[in-house]
Design brief:
Elements: E1 10-13, E2 22-29, E3 32-35, E4 40-45, E5 55-60, E6 63-64, E7 68-72, H1 82-87
Antiparallel strand pairs: 1-2, 1-7, 2-3, 3-6, 4-5
Length: about 90
């Protein structure tokens, strides 16, 4: 069932440090889901031209799909082909 998770679904974490928390999926990539407000870590950034001060930056860490349980599916509207409906009379 974990492979059927999509962006916008509401899920509950069933394993790990965040067990029992529910959140909305922001992105699914490479077998991991990025959840809104869960799995945020700090990354230390070296000084560079783009970031002259350096310091810390918050990043999202993905949670493996097998550690998630679907609570509520995202509502999707299917697009229909108007020409196909006319021909099906």
């Amino acid at each position: 069932m974990a492979q059927n998770l999509k962006t916008g679904d509401k899920v509950m974490v069933i394993a790990g440090d965040n067990k029992g928390k529910t959140a909305k999926i922001i992105k699914v990539k490479d077998g991991k889901a990025y959840l809104e407000g869960i799995g945020i870590r700090e990354r230390h950034v070296k000084k560079s031209y783009l970031n002259p001060k350096g310091g810390k930056k918050d990043i999202h860490v993905g949670i493996v799909l097998s550690n998630l349980k679907l609570v509520e599916a995202a509502k999707t509207e299917k697009k229909t082909n108007a020409k196909a409906k006319k021909g099906a009379k």
